[in-house]
Amino acid sequence: YQTKLEFALKLGYSEEQVQLVLNKLGTDALINDILGELVKLGNKTETDQTVTNANTSVIRETSSIESQRSESPLQEDVTEDGDNLRPIVIDGSNVAMSHGNKEVFSCRGIKLAVDWFLERGHKDVTVFVPAWRKEQSRPDALITDQEILRKLEKEKILVFTPSRRVQGRRVVCYDDRFIVKLAFESDGIIVSNDNYRDLANEKPEWKKFIDERLLMYSFVNDKFMPPDDPLGRHGPSLDNFLRKKPIVPEHKKQPCPYGKKCTYGHKCKYYHPERGNQPQRSVADELRAMSR
């Protein structure tokens, strides 16, 4: 036994492995048989150890991934989504007068619009209001909830456009220019029911920007409601309109059953994936164009 043990130890096997083999083969087993069994036992042990190590590493990696996921997955998603939202520039006068039914400058309407965007995760919201709206309410210029303006100004959301008095006459800066200029430079969204035609005629790039980035709205009592399709039914959804990079599928409409054979062109009410965002002429229009 001692001779066989020393032989196995010199080859790097342990005493327990030798005892296992001798219990299996008997103490009278030949050295070659013992060596063969030791080789098999060694290979099996190494394989089991490799599998165990692999399983351990997998468990560790899984646990680390799970721990990373459990830390703050929702917060990361919200943060990324917040960074993906466009800056908002609100035409305060337009919103306030709309909420006041064009009779009263309702500061509460501005607050409702601001809260709507803040609740959606927008971090960059700016409201422009002429500075003379800080003056006391008069019968010909009624203002309600005026303290809201001061509060929004302290929160660095509301900005008063300059105005001054010269020989008893008020000189007012054009607040619409502030609105369009900031929205254009920040690549944001203009919230207003005004079309800004005079400013659109000044610069071609402003005209294109106003056409593509103007968000209109309605007030239903105290509920601020922008449209779900700001640029029409063939344009982006409201969610994608307010984002820098769209993440919501645009087309939820039913695909056209006629596909490419459809003869309705851009008048077809179904979705045509092959057309993309470009309107397509009907077959009749194509034939007319070819005949010309």
Automatic annotation (TrEMBL):
The record ties this protein, via Pfam families, to: RNase_Zc3h12a, UBA_6
**GO molecular function annotations of the record:** hydrolase activity; mRNA binding; RNA endonuclease activity; zinc ion binding
Keywords from UniProt, A to Z, are: Endonuclease, Hydrolase, Magnesium, Metal-binding, Nuclease, Zinc, Zinc-finger
| Family annotation (InterPro entries) | Rege-1_UBA-like (IPR040546), RNase_Zc3h12_NYN (IPR021869), ZC3H12/N4BP1_RNase_Reg (IPR051101), Znf_CCCH (IPR000571)
Domain C3H1-type positions: 250-275
The segments labelled Disordered in the record are 53-80, 273-292
Task: Write down the CDD domains for this protein, in alphabetical order.
Answer: PIN_Zc3h12-like
ZnF C3H1-type residues are: 250-275
Coiled-coil annotated spans: none
For the keyword Transmembrane helix, the answer is no
Known cofactor(s): Mg(2+)
List where Basic and acidic residues composition bias occurs.
283-292
| Biased composition regions of type Polar residues, renumbered to the chain | 53-73
Question: Keyword Zinc on this protein?
Answer: yes
Q: Which domain of life is it from?
A: Eukaryota
* Gene Ontology CC, one term: nucleus
- Describe the family membership recorded for this protein in Swiss-Prot or TrEMBL: Belongs to the ZC3H12 family.
Name the UniProt record assigns to this protein: Putative ribonuclease ZC3H12C
**What organism does the UniProt record list as the source?**
Apaloderma vittatum (Bar-tailed trogon)
